[in-house]
Design a protein that fits this description.
heterotrimer, A alpha/beta (about 425), B mainly alpha (about 300), C mainly alpha (about 300), B: about 300 residues, mainly alpha, two-stranded antiparallel ribbon, about 0% strand, globular, C: about 300 residues
Chain lengths: ~425, ~300, ~300
């Protein structure tokens, strides 16, 4: 009897050991690194840079924590930050997401490191620093930059003699012309995943509503009563008749496919998607920033799309080594490699160059980002999740006809109350 | 008889080694205690607080979450959807499945019935995630359903999953597609236990097919009927996978269910206290159903 | 009920087998057959479509939704397999195997203890053991999430195996216990006479006799843990640990629009249970139906 109990116990213990055994201690400096790209094409890129780094710094060993996708990453990084095994180096979004991490007090301010390496830090595109500054300190190094813009089919635009619109009225005129000329659904959109709604609304709210009001409201100190929000939602609804049927029923990649297939002429996409469009489209295309909204109080030259960057743990035992790793990662050479391998735009000046791009359009994209007067954060990163969700769900219900713009804003205000209670 | 036997045995063992008895049940008690009973118990306490998954600070809100629950319009939508789920599932997975089982067991159809019932059972074997991803493509504007409908004229490009009027019904009918073969199989197993002589005799007495079904089959599968009924109903009130994968509760919250809404509150909005309160609502529904089942089974047996 | 059966049997004696109306085709029965066929097509066609689509190119999938692929793209399968399905597949196998092992070991021990011994609190333990059936995972998810975190097994295989075991315990215990109850106690006594310890009796006498029920229970557990979704999306973050149902979500996101590849992945993932069913149809149905009746 005892033997069998012992056997059972041994079986249990063996099972539990398999999950707890970890690498034994070693002489090398060990840095843990957490990112969120398990898949192609960024996963292999990360592996490649890590390989190069370990080759160049044989005394440092990078231990990658098994990467997880978006939502899981958000959750897991918060868990890790709250726990004792916070990774030494990790990726973060800018804006409120980074702010929450910084609030924990466990993220290292990097101002000294930046000042000590002026030649390196001077090469990072200026406009990208801001979103990682909290309380006047720099907590993250911008790594990749992005922007949300309307891609348009240039071939069709030229054929019909259309210009890039600057204002909302011009925009609607363009859409009408397209509709009259054989494109019943000139814009393709996929709102099945909620974030796609928030990318429209974030940019449009910035264009329309007084920036001071937005700042206050997003910080949960306002009341979301500005008429501008209702107007924004109504403008958003105006686009419905130019879109594919039931945009709520398809996801963003489906919308992109409609654009690539030439069924639609416009699609709101990230600059990081150039490579995907390039692979499929057999026409010329370009892009323009979200047009100014009627009665708009926000700067119409801002560009929506915040950078992602790298942070270092305040509890890292080898901050110099970690800084070395960050500088290695965010360098002209590896930025160029990123653009080449993944199509993402590096924040390092000169990394996106004629040699690293797969199409000259990526150079235009960098110009567009540099030209922008500022960065509008993604709405779902800029405001509390409950409020953001009310906007996104509201946007969907606006399109199904279940809610009016006023009703959506009522929901947003209700969400605000809940968010304050958190 | 069996009772006597075990009692005798237990009586014998009583003085000998009672402690080893505890050793035998110990792992089970610990496991179920930690993973089932403790969470259920603590859940009641959780509803009194507002808290986030990642911080230790709890704010006491008393019955605030329950009050919120009662006035939350999304809860009403979710309950309505769960009730739709329930009613339609009863129609297909209980009533229709019973009829189907009877038909498949009729001698007239026997030569096809193996093929039919095996095929009907195949969806049961396929994980709901797979089924939902398949149905997303079938129901997409350019999907199989629309290209089928387009055969009857016109170019149909309806986004079935993108309309608040149809999204939840897409999920419900997908669920019937997935599970009807299962309940049919259960009824078939039960009908096969009915002695054939019984049905043949009824026929000699002049009972037609419908009478045989109502007078003989239905009373004899009554117990299974209650079982299937209760599992179907509780399944309908707890449904998560189907809706989560197919629509994620959208557009808006129009196709959400209690479980999906709870998940959303807990893991996307980080409102853990409120999510626990939604769980309590499901718990109450669950317990009521379980008690009903026991009562029904008792009358079913009697 | 007994009475009816008796009288029927009596009746039957007097009548030879006859050609009943049940075997004649009428308009009504043909219409019913038609509906059976419609349901048949409704079930089988999407599955065939899934398989056909998995053999198309991405473009064909969009442009030619009905037709046959011009050329069978078998490499979709090897691509899908190497793009992650293989990992999810092996994880599912591992987690399912472990869940079966732990559930059966614990349930067998508990059932044996409950059948053979009488002790204080036995009824309570029996009630608790069976009571688990009343509750499904959804009703206490948040505290369970906390428990998993506090035990520091979040994002490990244990975060699936242990809850699966707990939630399959009641039904397994019920089935195994009622089987043990039907084993004559003389078997136990003969074991005692042979000088076996009680665990020895369990191992050498009870277990070999219980093979059919253990197989049934195993199938029941396998069906559950192979398809479980809620725990595996909440308790597991790492792609490397995901099982098929949750891994497919990652797989889909990673693909963007290559639906043909997605369908190849879906087909591979659907296959094992279908094969298991085909190989062990009888046991499978017995397993699922006893699971339903008792659970």
């Amino acid at each position: 009897m005892k033997r069998i109990i012992a056997l059972l116990l041994a079986f249990m213990m063996v099972l539990s050991l398999t999950t707890t055994i970890t690498a034994s201690a070693e002489e090398k400096i060990k840095l843990t690194f957490f990112h969120r790209w398990p898949n192609e094409p960024k996963g292999p890129y990360m592996d490649e840079v890590i390989r190069k780094f370990e080759e160049a710094y044989p005394n440092i060993d990078i231990v990658v924590i098994d990467p997880v996708l978006n939502d899981s990453y958000k959750e897991k990084i918060r868990v890790l930050i709250g726990s004792s095994d916070i990774p030494d180096v990790f990726m973060s979004w800018s804006g409120s997401f980074g702010a929450n991490l910084v609030k924990s007090g466990r993220v290292l301010p990097l101002d000294d490191m930046i000042a000590a390496n002026p030649e390196w830090s001077g090469k990072i595109i200026d406009s990208q620093w801001g979103p990682f500054q909290y309380d006047g300190k720099q907590y993250g190094i911008p790594w990749s930059m992005d922007g949300k813009v309307f891609y348009y089919n240039k071939t069709v635009f030229v054929e019909l003699g259309l210009q890039e619109p600057d204002t909302w009225d011009e925009f609607i005129t363009v859409l009408k012309t397209l509709q009259e000329n054989g494109y019943p659904h000139p814009i393709s959109a996929g709102f099945q995943a909620e974030w796609a709604v928030s990318h429209y609304l974030g940019a449009m709210v910035q264009r329309r509503v007084d920036p001071d009001v937005v700042t206050k409201d997003y910080a949960l100190e306002g009341d979301f009563t500005d008429q501008g929000y209702v107007d924004t939602l109504n403008s958003f609804l105006e686009l419905k008749e130019y879109m594919n049927e039931d945009p709520n029923s398809v996801d963003h990649s489906f919308a992109r496919n409609l654009f690539i297939d030439g069924e639609s002429v416009l699609c709101l996409m990230q600059l990081a998607e150039i490579k995907r469009v390039e692979d499929g489209a057999d026409f010329e295309y370009s892009f323009f920033d979200m047009p100014a909204l009627p009665g708009g109080l926000g700067d119409p030259d801002e560009l929506e799309g915040a950078p992602e960057g790298m942070m270092i743990s305040a509890e890292c035992e080898h901050p110099e080594a970690a800084a070395e790793f960050v500088r290695f990662f965010i360098s002209e050479e590896n930025g160029a490699l990123m653009t080449k391998m993944t199509g993402e735009l590096s924040c390092v000046e000169g990394a996106v160059n004629p040699d690293s791009v797969s199409t000259p359009i990526q150079l235009d994209a960098v110009e567009l980002i540099k030209k922008a007067s500022g960065t509008t954060l993604w709405q779902d990163n800029a405001v509390d999740a409950t409020v953001a969700s009310a906007f996104m769900k509201g946007g969907q219900l606006l399109y199904t006809g279940d809610k009016t713009a006023e009703q959506v804003m009522e929901d947003v205000r209700a969400a605000l109350e809940l968010a304050k209670q958190k | 008889m069996m009772m006597q036997r075990t009692t005798r045995l237990q009586g014998k063992k009583r003085q000998k080694t009672p402690w080893s008895a505890y050793l035998y049940v110990f792992p089970m008690v610990v496991l179920m205690g930690v993973f089932i009973y403790y969470p259920i118990f603590v859940n009641f306490y959780y509803t009194l607080y507002n808290f986030s998954a990642f911080s230790l600070s709890h704010t006491f809100v008393g019955l605030g979450n329950i009050r919120l629950l009662l006035s939350d319009p999304v809860i009403a939508t979710a309950l309505r959807n769960n009730i739709f789920y329930c009613l339609i599932s009863i129609g297909f997975q209980v009533l229709l499945a019973l009829g189907l089982a009877f038909i498949l067991e009729e001698p007239l159809y026997r030569r096809f019935s193996t093929v039919f019932r095996t095929t009907y059972f195949i969806p049961v074997l396929i994980s709901m995630t797979i089924v939902a991803m398949l149905f997303m493509q079938i129901l997409s504007p350019r999907g199989l359903l629309n290209s089928f409908l387009s055969l009857f004229g016109g170019k149909v490009r309806t986004g079935w999953l993108g309309r608040s009027s149809s999204a939840i019904f897409c999920a419900i009918f997908m669920s019937q597609w997935h599970s009807m073969g299962y309940t049919t199989m259960l009824f078939i197993v039960d009908i096969q236990k009915i002695p054939t002589e019984l049905l043949e005799a009824a026929e000699i007495d002049g009972a037609n097919r419908i009478q045989r079904f109502l007078k003989i089959v239905v009373p004899l599968v009554r117990e299974m009927f209650f079982v299937v009924m209760v599992t179907t109903v509780s399944g309908a009130f707890l449904v998560f996978n189907d809706v989560y994968v197919l629509t994620r509760g959208g557009p808006g919250n129009s196709s959400t269910t209690l479980a999906v809404y709870m998940y959303d509150m807990a893991f996307t909005q980080d409102r853990m206290g409120y999510a626990s309160t939604i769980a309590i609502l499901m718990f109450v529904i669950c317990v009521i159903l379980a008690l009903t089942q026991r009562r029904l089974l008792r009358t079913g047996k009697g | 009920m007994k009475k009816v059966t008796c009288s029927v049997k009596k009746k039957k004696i007097g009548f030879p087998k006859f050609n009943s109306s049940r075997n004649q085709w009428t308009l009504g029965t043909v219409i019913i057959l038609f509906f059976l066929l419609v349901y048949f097509v409704l079930v089988i066609y999407p599955l065939i479509w899934m398989i056909l689509s998995s053999l198309k190119t991405e473009r064909e999938f969009f442009r030619n939704i009905w037709g046959f692929p011009a050329e069978f793209q078998w490499e979709n399968y090897s691509k899908a397999w190497s793009m992650g399905i293989s990992d999810y597949f092996l994880n599912s196998v591992f987690v399912t195997a472990c869940t079966i092992a732990t559930t059966i070991s614990i349930a067998v021990l508990a059932a044996f203890g409950l059948v053979l011994y009488d002790f204080k609190g036995k009824n309570l333990i029996l009630l608790l053991g069976m009571g688990g059936m009343m509750f499904s995972a959804q009703v206490a998810l948040i505290p369970l999430y906390r428990v998993i975190q506090n035990l520091r097994i979040h994002d490990t295989y244990w975060a699936m195996i242990l809850p699966y075991t707990a939630f399959r315990m009641s039904i397994s215990l019920l089935l195994i216990r009622s089987y043990f109850l039907s084993i004559p106690r003389e078997m136990y006594e003969s074991g005692v006479i042979d000088g076996c310890s009680s665990l020895g009796i369990l191992y050498h006498i009870y277990l070999p006799m219980s093979k059919p029920i253990l197989l049934t229970v195993s199938i029941l557990i396998a069906y559950y843990s192979w398809n479980e979704f809620l725990f595996s999306i909440i308790f597991i973050d790492s792609r490397a640990l995901k099982t098929i149902p949750s891994g497919l979500m990652v797989f889909r996101d990673a693909l963007n629009t290559d639906y043909a590849l997605l369908f190849a992945g879906l087909t591979i993932s659907a296959l094992p249970m279908v094969l298991l069913f085909i190989l062990m149809q009888k046991q499978f149905i017995r397993g699922l139906s006893s699971g339903a009746v008792k659970g």
